[in-house]
Amino acid sequence: MKRILTAVVLIAVVFALIFFGQLWMISLFALLIAELAAFEYLQLARAGGANIPILWMLAATACLFLPLVPAWPLDAQLPLLSFLAMALFAWNGFRAPLDHVLPDTAQGLFGLLYIGFPLTLIPAIWKQEDGPTLLLFLMVCVWSGDIAALYIGRAFGKHKLAPRLSPGKTWEGSIASVLGSLLAGLAVVLASDGLAARGSISMHITQPLWQSILLAILLNLAAQVGDLLESAIKRGAGVKDSGTMLPGHGGILDRIDALLLAAPVLWYALLLKDTFKLGAF
To answer: For residue 104, which of 162, 30, 54, 167 has the smallest C-alpha distance?
Structure first.
């Protein structure tokens, strides 16, 4: 019951932000999630023997959201990331044991790019043409795939997918996940078409159906890989869940692991569509 109630509340908050929120609200919410996930990542890293300064991790994660500020120059992103990297390197160089300087710095930077960067793409995607529909498509594909994998895998799963990383995941659940995302993505397309036929512009999809099908499959595959990669981090640290912030679900990182890979895939897909003149979403 806790799992269902938590999921309902989270889905309601996300949907409300997507369709009724402002850019600053979505950015602030994404930043909050990024900070909580970064804190959980620190605990995982420490369980594995790393020692990343918490103040650096939280401040650096917040700095990644600066490019969303309208007055922030776009060419300042790489210098900002370089400064954050050198600051952590210097801190570890003077304070950490010498055999930990490079590993601790590398794990800190990885956490920044693994968690912070993908979540900055959420408000960036929302700002695009038909951004709310894009985000809805992304969330629905990720969530439906996860649900299909969970229940079909439990009921019919026999062949292990990646037992070294996640013993509970099966090929049957993985295939069901792809189909779940595909059906959910098509449902969003049909809903968009239905609203457009009634003169509503609250949801708008103009790309050919084959592109929506391909995008749903790509997002699902990215989400599944993201889930497995987070499992690798947890197993390496010797823990089952990334935290206990979400009743019935574990930690924040456990809930967004699929999104952390799916969001960049969607962003790069949009860039490719723009580069090759394949039209808007």
So the answer is: 54
Secondary structure class of 64 (helix, strand, coil):
coil
CA dist., res. 156 & res. 170, Å (int): 9
Contact 258, 140 (CB under 8 A): no
Rounded to 5°, angle at Cα 50 from 228 and 77: 75
Interior/surface letters 114-127, b for 16+ CB within 10 angstroms, e for the rest: bbbbbbbbbbbbbe
Q: Is 23 exposed, middle or buried (0-12, 13-18, 19+ CB in 10 A)?
A: middle
239: Cβ contacts below 8 Å, ≥ 6 apart: 44, 47
- Backbone angles phi and psi of 248, in degrees to 5: 85, -10
How much of the chain, in percent, has pLDDT values that exceed 70?
98
Q: What is the pLDDT of residues 107-129, one digit of tens each?
A: 999 999 999 999 999 999 999 98
Question: Residue 169: what are its φ and ψ, rounded to 5°?
Answer: -85, 140
Structure confidence at residue 89 (pLDDT): 96
Query: Is there a domain that residue 280 lies in?
Result: no
Residue 1, pLDDT > 70, answer no
Distance CA 145, CA 141 (A): 6
Q: Which domain holds residue 32?
A: 2-275
What residues does 246 pair with on adjacent strands?
A: 250
> Domains in the chain: how many in total?
1
Which one-letter DSSP state was computed for residue 116?
I
pLDDT score, position 202: 75
Cα distance from N-terminal residue to C-terminal residue, the chain: 37
- Quickly count: other Cβ atoms within 10 Å of residue 271's Cβ: 10
Find the farthest-apart pair of alpha carbons in the chain and give their distance in angstroms, rounded: 66
Please report whether residue 225 resides in a domain.
yes
